[in-house]
Amino acid sequence: MSSKDDYIYSTRHFKLALWLFIVMILIASFFSYWQSIDSQINATSVVIAKKLIIDRASFYRQEWLLKSKPTSILVNGEVLHFSQHGWLLPISDDGSSNCMIWIELLSPESVSEKGSAVKLSESDFDDQYFCQYQSLNNESVTIQLRGESFEVF
Q: Residue 49 and residue 134: Cα distance in Å, rounded?
């Protein structure tokens, strides 16, 4: 091989290496940008889920008001228990607290169908209920019922 052929050969390799480097930089930039977008999407979806939980709790409270404020209502074959202020209680038929009731009835279908509540913390004390749900992506939703106050945060 002549020196001219060596020069052409090395120039082609240099151009190929340069193009590969540029493509790798573009791919890395895309993934970095995608991660920031993904975290914003997750945060937004949690905010929307919280608003939907409040909306559904208000829907059940309206049903309670329309039915003359009973302590329980039969809905789709399930007995739902209500507080004296009309908020849905996380109480099973046997009287024990069960946070899964809130996530099944109040959360958006996308949350309850995917079973993304991987961690539950619950406590009830003197008609105060506290349920914390943590999703697969470590986002947390807390539902608290204290007297007249129903809060989602």
A: 13
